[in-house]
Amino acid sequence: MNAFFNCFRPVSHKRSCVKVFIALFICCLLSFFLSACKKETDYFSYVSELRSNLLLAENDGLALRIYAVKKENPYLADGIPRDSSPRVELYLSAPAGDKDCTVSFSVDKQTLGGDMSFDSVKAEYYYSCTADLSDAEELLCTVTYGENSYELTAKTVRNNDTLSPKEVLKKLLSAETQLFTDMTDKYGFTGEIYLRLLYEDAPYYYIGIIDRNGNTTAFLLSAKTGKVLAKRQT
Fold first, then answer.
1. Distance (Å, rounded) from C-alpha 206 to C-alpha 191?
2. What average pLDDT does the structure give for the chain?
3. Is pLDDT at 188 greater than 80 in this prediction?
4. SS3 label, residue 95
5. Which helix (H) or strand (E) holds 185?
6. Which of 28, 30, 105, 210 can pair with 141 through a Cys bridge, CB separation 3.0 to 4.6 Å?
7. How many angstroms separate the CA atoms of 184 and 204, rounded?
């Protein structure tokens, strides 16, 4: 206030007043730019398991599912995200699990594949390797099951209406603002996120929000609209 009244005093005081106003102006600018530079929390960076694509194929009693995934290592639902890398997971349902089974396919002109192990609990064959199929529309696979060889062209369940993983997470952020706010402090998000593309007559997304105590709030969302269809806490 004194600085303001100094403006009505002699010239020497007016010069001092100008300096004060310049200093105040600079402070205001700095405050504005610091506020503008403050980054919002990037919740997608806390996704520690991402299933971004799902491809399906069937042929002569064989059913093939292919997942494009990124999973943290070690894979722990403890609310702490870790580094992840892209992988391909293949699951094959067959009439029986008593035959040797192999799979081969090509990604970026590189031939991949090998022996598929049989999971007696899930009653299906399994194979995994390092590769990125997140943008794949289809994948031609050669499956040798016992004495026979089959060609299966697995096609993505996504279509033009399917939201991307980032888009569907934004939809959930809008619908569950309080949940994310409660789990966010000045250091960032205090949890990890599992985000999986599913298919059951139509594409869906599963999103699991996991806190540091291992508690999970799970959501099922429409892959077309991002609408929350179900919610469960465990």
1. 16
2. 89
3. yes
4. coil
5. strand 184-185
6. 105
7. 26
Question: Residue range 169-173: average pLDDT?
Answer: 98
Q: Is 60 helix (H, G, I), strand (E, B) or coil?
A: coil
Instruction: Provide the token pair at 2.
Output: 């004194």
How far is Cα 6 from Cα 12, in angstroms, rounded to an integer?
Answer: 9
For 119-143, b/e burial (b = at least 16 CB within 10 A) is eeeeebbebeeebbbbebeebebeb
pLDDT-based confidence at residue 40 (cuts at 50, 70, 90): confident
Provide DSSP, 99-165: S-EEEEEEETTEEEEEEPEEETTTTEEEEEES---TT-SEEEEEEEETTEEEEEEEEES--TTPPPH
Q: Taking the model in full, what pTM does it have?
A: 0.81
pLDDT at residue 131 above 60?
Answer: yes
Q: Which residues, at least 6 apart from 171, have a Cβ–Cβ distance to it below 8 Å?
A: 163, 221, 225, 226, 227
Give CA–CA dist 96/87, Å, rounded.
Answer: 26
Q: Residues near 95 by Cβ (< 8 Å), separated by ≥ 6?
A: 61
Coil, strand or helix: which one is 13?
Answer: helix
Q: Give CA–CA dist 102/144, Å, rounded.
A: 5
Q: Work out whether strand 47-59 and strand 191-199 pair parallel, antiparallel, or are unpaired.
A: parallel
Q: Are 91 and 124 in contact (CB under 8 A)?
A: yes
**84 has a pLDDT exceeding 60:** yes
